[in-house]
């Protein structure tokens, strides 16, 4: 698991971008940290203020909104801030969530959480599990501090090759050719993010 004790850090100051089902689930998990919440209707001034006062930015938005929103907040990020996405799928340009954040912010400021995180179950107080993947070796420890004592258990990612492409590990059988094509194009990024490509499926 991600060892929160291995990295003494200041109390995290989380910001949740998006307040849909998963945004509300993250708000519940992180209630001890009193997270800031931003929704698009709050406007750019409120966004700038919230980003400047936060050191962990959680993107609880659809994949299609990541690139534009990440580019918007980049000038306002504090030097110690890093971002986290829990989005699945691809954006309108065919990029994965981590690829979109990587392109907008650079690999060292991005992390991804993937796993059986079902918003309804989290909000009902049931346990959840996620893997953390990032090019930053300290990202998982920082997230361990953030989620310590919550119902979300984190572990370092052993293989995010599939989930960074699809966000749906169970979809491998029906989408193997697509996965192989996408991971071939993403090979440099996957290597820099310390994740392994899935093996080419046998025919």
Structure description:
Residues 159-201 have low confidence and may be disordered. The protein is an alpha/beta fold and 203 residues long. Helix 3 packs parallel to helix 4. The N and C termini lie far apart (35 Å). The chain is built from nine helices and seven strands, in the order βαβαβαβαβαβαβααα. It has a seven-stranded mixed sheet with strand order 2-1-3-4-5-6-7, sandwiched between helices. The radius of gyration is 16 Å and the shape is globular.
List the helices and strands and how they pair.
Layout (H helix, E strand, L loop, with lengths): L13 E4 L3 H9 L6 E3 L4 H10 L3 E4 L3 H11 L8 E4 L11 H9 L4 E5 L4 H5 L4 E7 L4 H9 L4 E5 L4 H5 L6 H14 L1 H6 L11
Parallel strand pairs: 1-2, 1-3, 3-4, 4-5, 6-7
Antiparallel strand pairs: 5-6
Helix pairs in contact: 3-4
Brief descriptors of the model:
single chain, 203 residues, alpha/beta, 7-stranded mixed beta sheet, 7 strands, globular, disordered C terminus
Radius of gyration, whole Å: 16 Å
Q: What class would the helix/strand composition place it in?
A: alpha/beta
For the sheet with most strands, the description reads: 7 strands, mixed
What number is the mean pLDDT?
80
Number of helices: 9
Task: Give the strand order, joined by hyphens, for the main sheet.
Answer: 2-1-3-4-5-6-7
- Percent helix among the residues? 25-40%
The counted number of beta strands is 7
State which percent range the strand residues make up.
Answer: 15-25%
Multimer state: single chain
Beginning-to-end CA distance, first to last residue: 35 Å
Query: What is the ordering of alpha helices and beta strands?
Result: EHEHEHEHEHEHEHHH
Shape: globular
Low-confidence stretches: 159-201
């Amino acid at each position: 698991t991600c060892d929160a004790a291995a990295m003494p850090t200041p109390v995290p100051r989380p910001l949740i971008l998006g307040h849909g089902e998963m945004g509300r689930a993250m708000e519940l998990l992180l209630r001890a940290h009193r997270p800031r919440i931003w929704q698009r209707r709050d406007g750019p001034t409120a966004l700038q203020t919230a980003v400047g006062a936060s050191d962990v930015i959680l993107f609880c938005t659809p994949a299609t909104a990541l690139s534009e929103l990440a580019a918007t907040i980049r000038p306002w990020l504090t030097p110690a801030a890093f971002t986290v996405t829990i989005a699945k799928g691809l954006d309108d340009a065919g990029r994965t969530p981590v690829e979109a954040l990587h392109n907008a912010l650079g690999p060292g400021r991005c992390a991804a959480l993937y796993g059986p995180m079902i918003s309804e179950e989290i909000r009902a107080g049931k346990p959840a599990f996620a893997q953390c993947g990032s090019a930053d070796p300290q990202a998982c420890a920082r997230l361990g501090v953030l989620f310590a004592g919550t119902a979300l258990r984190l572990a370092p990612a052993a293989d995010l090759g599939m989930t960074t492409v699809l966000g749906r590990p169970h979809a491998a059988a029906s989408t193997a050719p697509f996965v192989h094509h996408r991971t071939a194009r993403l090979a440099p990024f996957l290597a820099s993010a310390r994740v392994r490509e899935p093996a080419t499926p046998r025919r």
